[in-house]
Design brief:
Helix content is 76%, strand content 0%. The chain is built from nine helices and no strands. The chain is globular and about 55 Å long.
Length: 204
């Protein structure tokens, strides 16, 4: 028997869908324009709506930017979860490669992440939402290190791994005088050096 949907549910589903359209438009704009140069008007134009309409779904520019960031965080967390659960041998190599590849392919997410980490103007609610998404990534790294039989507590290792991989992007993503392909290859090589150090620590 087909489930009956109330008018209220229909309106709520429509609101969720429209929020999704706006967030996806924001991500597309972030992909081609410096984060600090993006305006609500840019996103509205990409989404095909008036800029005033955006404020029906997001109370301010900050909340929209955070929502776009969280969407990316959910994607990378799901990718890491699948790799850790399905890989039987050396999942850390696959995790490092997948994490780095995601940040390279979704540069707008990386730029947003570094912006929010350095920006002290976020509201307490927004900071907590960002911290919660970051903790979910740390949880996946915790699961990875437990799978490697690393001694507890593993959370400091997760912090170090996260910082090291992000550091690769910060240091080399705009390496002067090198082709994009060469830069990407170099970043993956450095990531594997990091992996080798963590693997060496696990067998001592």
């Amino acid at each position: 028997m087909k489930k009956k949907i109330s008018f209220a549910e229909l309106k709520n589903n429509e609101k969720i869908a429209r929020r999704g359209v706006i967030v996806e438009a924001a991500q597309r704009v972030f992909a081609v324009k410096p984060f600090n140069k993006v305006s609500i008007r840019d996103i509205a134009k990409e989404a095909g709506i008036s800029h005033a309409s955006i404020y029906r779904y997001f109370p301010d520019q900050q909340s929209l930017f955070v929502e776009a960031f969280l969407h990316g965080a959910e994607e990378i967390t799901a990718i890491l979860d699948e790799i850790i659960k399905s890989s039987r041998r050396k999942p850390i190599e696959k995790v490092a490669e997948a994490y780095l590849t995601y940040l390279i392919d979704n540069d707008q997410y990386f730029r947003m992440m570094t912006h929010f980490m350095l920006d002290g103007s976020l509201s307490a609610e927004m900071v907590e939402r960002l911290n919660a998404s970051e903790r979910r990534i740390f949880d996946k790294f915790d699961a990875l290190f437990r799978k490697m039989n690393m001694p507890e507590p593993v959370r400091p290792l997760s912090h170090a791994f996260f910082a090291a991989l992000n550091g690769v992007l910060i240091t080399f993503r705009n390496y002067p005088g090198r082709s994009v392909k060469t830069v990407h290859q170099h970043m993956h090589h450095i990531a594997q050096v990091i992996v080798s150090k963590f693997c060496a620590a696990s067998i001592k």
